[in-house]
Design goal:
It contains five helices and seven strands. It is of the alpha+beta class and 190 residues long. It has one domain: 3-Layer(aba) Sandwich (Aminopeptidase), CATH 3.40.630.30. Strands 1-2-3-4-5-7-6 form a seven-stranded mixed sheet, sandwiched between helices. Helix 1 packs across helix 3. The chain is globular and about 45 Å long. The relative contact order is 0.14.
């Protein structure tokens, strides 16, 4: 029996891939839009108003073009060809830190964050890293809920990030990639 010929409808609409230098302006745009939406009440207005898009673009272009080490990476989430989110990672001792994980709010709840976290985990496993860490603003309920559903837990670390005249309290989150429960080896609660 012959099967009907299926018409190809193009390529996958959603994916995660390593960032290229050409993605730098899109990464900077996603960062600004997301920070304004998610942290507008948390960060002083002058911090967001002082945003220099050209400087941010060049900073991301350098991070992608000449990462400080092989353990540094920038990944982008793509939807219908457009960059809609990104993640950046860096070595953190024997762990890998997710230094940034952002999805533009209008593209949220479509799996982009999950795909980015899965890709970061794959990169870490390839490098034989078994722990991922990330620092979140204590008030960032959306990201903390997302990470908790992905198997992350607060690690117990606390730091203050200076922001204008104020300081943002950040909590360290972590997950194990070797199957161990991150909540079981928590050092304490903030």
């Amino acid at each position: 029996m012959d099967l009907p010929l299926l018409r190809l409808t193009g390529q996958a609409d959603v994916s995660v891939r390593p960032a290229t230098p050409d993605d730098a302006s899109s990464i900077a745009r996603v960062q600004l839009v997301t920070w304004r939406a998610a942290f507008g009440d948390l960060l002083p207005a002058d911090v967001l108003d002082a945003w220099d898009e050209d400087l941010a673009t060049e900073t991301w272009r350098a991070a992608v073009s000449t990462p400080p080490s092989p353990g540094h990476a920038v990944l982008v989430a793509v939807d219908a060809g457009a960059v809609v989110g990104f993640a950046a990672t860096a070595p953190d001792g024997e762990a890998r830190e997710v230094t940034v994980l952002l999805v533009e709010p209008r593209w949220g709840r479509r799996g982009h964050g999950s795909r980015l976290v899965a890709a970061v985990a794959d990169l870490a496993r390839t490098a034989e890293v078994t722990t991922l860490t990330s620092w979140l603003a204590e008030q960032d309920v959306v990201t903390s809920r997302f990470l908790e559903t992905a198997g992350w837990a607060p690690q117990g670390g606390v730091r203050l990030l200076e922001s204008g005249d104020d300081a943002v309290r950040q909590l360290c989150w972590h997950t194990r990639l070797d199957g161990d429960d991150p909540a079981a080896d928590r050092e304490g609660t903030p």
